Give the backbone structure.
Amino acid sequence: MPDNFPTRRKVLQTAGLAASLVAMPSLHAQAAWPSKPVRFVVPFAPGGTSEIVARSVAAELSKQLGQSVYVENKPGGAGTVAMQEVAKSAPDGHTIILGHVGTLAVNPYMLKNQPYDVNKDFIPVTLLAKVPNVFVIHPDVPAKNFQEFVAYAKKNPGQLNYGSAGNASAGHLAMEYLKLVTGMFITHIPYRGTGPQLTDLLSGRTQASSAGMPALGAHIRSGKLRAIAVGTQQRISHLPDVPTVAEMGYKDFETSQWYGILAPAGTPADVVKRLQEESLKALKSSAVTERFASDNAVGGGGPPAEFAAFIAREQKIWSDIVKRANIKAD
């Protein structure tokens, strides 16, 4: 046999080496994530609960992953601007977005012709937090409690304005739901974020709002805003004297803000799994648990399938409310 004629052993060895070389890039890519900073997009302006939740978790993820996880606020179009951009991003785990009740459960029924499908163009990673909605009014409003506020609004239809972080924001949805069950009429003034709308509320240019404790707590404690009700089924520990809407005679009323992580469709399953596991670890850190406790927020962290099922339930609830309350993009 000629010296240069390949033996069976040599052929097998060469084939094995080739297979290893083919597999190596894939294994390396999986092990390398994240190989660069991770962009965490928040579809609302700075100053609201969404940003507070995102930054709390991002800070811990940066420590755990060895790469910066930086928050980028990108408001506009009731969250659709950011959602569309992330949907078109490379599905490699280096661009993720903060999902929200408005962008995931309301926009599909409130907005026509969205340039993406929330159920097909994104992968649910994990639920991060549920935050109670708190209903507040400016102290100049001649109402000391929830019943007096509803009575005053009914006597003066259309004369009161409420601000929100924008169309389909949690505050917009909560107030429209409240209007539906109470029968009062208050004009909606959408802003580009919780921060801008709170500026006008604190100055008295608007009279009411609904947001989470992270954004409202300091203003309630200082007396600059008056809390009149909470949207959860039970009272919250930081506002023990403030009743729930349900106990005011509106049985089964419940609304809360919720936030989670989503990635573009096509993101590798192993990256999604690790991102969920690292997010759960971040949610259990003392920094996040203490921050969430101070805001009466309830942490999540469950697997992707659990978050997907949660989104589906919320879509069923809010599709009905959008129709009944005739919620539209103002």
